[in-house]
Amino acid sequence: MVQRPGCGGSTRRSFLKATGGVALTAAAAGCIGSTESDAVRFILNPAEEQTDIVEEYTPMAEYLEEETGATIDLIRAGSYVETLEALESDQADIADTSPTAVPAGEGFADVIGMRTAFGGALYFSTISTTPDSGIDELADLEGEIMTTGARMSTSGTLAPTVMLSQAGLDVGNFPDGEANDLELRTAPDHDTSRERLENDEEIVAAATGAFASASQIPQEQFDDYPEFVEHSAEYDGAGEGIDDDENPELQLLAVSDPLPRAPIMARSAWDASVREDLETALLEAGENDLVPEDVDEEYQLWFTGIEPADRSDYQPVQDILDELGLEFQDFAPDDE
């Protein structure tokens, strides 16, 4: 049975609260330690969107329990960094991590597989504006205010920062400091970044993953990006969510190079007999195992499969970190 133990009245959303992004708190460690001794500790990355990630993962956990006989303990982390720290400090056996965690996990965290969405293992960042902003290309953002996603988000912040730099804008030492040619403001998640563009007249552009923007961008605007057309799960539905009242039309400024979707990783030193069975079940999971038809749309996972992958598949992410002069461990959780 999927375990959701409480601890001192705290919830899954808060009990791995960040303490500077350096180590999990002693209270959190005690919480994890209070689970059943044979439970598989599955740490969940804090969702980019404002969703209940434990609810989203519950069908997958139930599938894994049925396939392997293991007890799965779903635990929501407080930050991107904490998912990796939990593996390193033996407070987790498996973790749903971000792509940026892969380079930093060498030596203690193994890549089990890469999550896919509707058959696609690649995804994309977008930078968009509003049709009446007067912004036609990235170079026009000089002197303007732009919003991005969470500071350590690959598609919400890191890839877009590289896109701005390659367009000739001086991004300074953002996101570990300030940009020079424009003001960049981080948001806690992709949706909030887009919404700030829609609702704040000061902000003229927003960086998000395409999954948070494409439905509001007319499809033909993506046709100049053949890799997006070929590989993005969002291309077919691009523009279909435009609603003048609820979801206003956005204008595309740029699309990133393809990015590898987020991995599921395991603690390298984890030698439990159930590990091989769990990894096999993860890689063999079908869409109905991960997103059952009877699950409310609000609680559906954003991925539909997991394909084999290894550390080399995440070289594009390492390249982004290198270009920005960043390391995963540099980042404390966002304050927002």
Give an overview in words.
This protein has two domains: 26-120 and 261-330, D-Maltodextrin-Binding Protein, domain 2 (3-Layer(aba) Sandwich), CATH 3.40.190.10; 125-257, D-Maltodextrin-Binding Protein, domain 2, CATH 3.40.190. It is built from ten helices and 13 strands. The protein has helices at residues 26-33, 53-68, 80-88, 101-104, 154-166, 190-199, 226-231, 275-284, 287-290, 315-324; strands at 40-44, 72-76, 94-96, 109-116, 122-123, 125-129, 145-148, 183-186, 203-209, 251-255, 259-260, 263-267, 305-308. The strands form three sheets. Strands 2-1-3-12-4-13 form a six-stranded mixed β-sheet, with helices on both faces. Strands 8-7-9-6-10 form a five-stranded mixed β-sheet. A two-stranded antiparallel ribbon has the order 5-11. Helix 2 (53-68) packs across helix 8 (275-284) and helix 5 crosses helix 10. The longest helix is centred in the first third of the chain and has 16 residues, at 53-68. The two termini are 34 Å apart. The relative contact order is 0.19. Residues 5-35 have low confidence and may be disordered.
- Helix content, binned percent: 25-40%
Number of strands: 13
**Quaternary structure:** single chain
Q: Treating each run of at least 4 consecutive H or I residues as one helix, how many helices?
A: 10
CATH class descriptor of the largest domain: Alpha Beta
Organism: Natronobacterium lacisalsi AJ5
Protein name: Phosphate ABC transporter substrate-binding protein
InterPro entries: TAT_signal
